[in-house]
Prior knowledge:
Blueprint: H1 3-9, H2 21-34, H3 37-40, H4 44-67, E1 78-83, E2 88-92, H5 108-119
Antiparallel strand pairs: 1-2
Amino acid sequence: MDITQFRLDFPEFSDDTVYTDSMITYWSTLAEKLHKEPRFGDVYTNIIELYTAHCIALQAQDILASNTGGIPLGDGGTISEKTVGTVTIQYDTTWSFENNGGWFNQTIYGRQYLQLAKMFGKGGFMA
């Protein structure tokens, strides 16, 4: 995947001190190993970029948690209930955005990836 083109397509990842070339290369290389170009044809690059953006967004959350003294655990889901007095928080862990979308529902890029993949009758299947 062309990193310069990725940054043009996803300008939110243009800060190369936060979203390093090595971070993008790591996730795009994995995406290319998991997805075969003949399966996706003309949208292969889009699939690779969306998968990469999804993984980078999740990694950025983990880095932020780590930098603020937290432990990178990933997101528990969308907050479905919140109480301030005596602190209550409840997460929707059903991943209701996309049925059977699993961890792809944690970012807009993952949901877009699933929608695009489904257009090819592939669901979340990679290979």
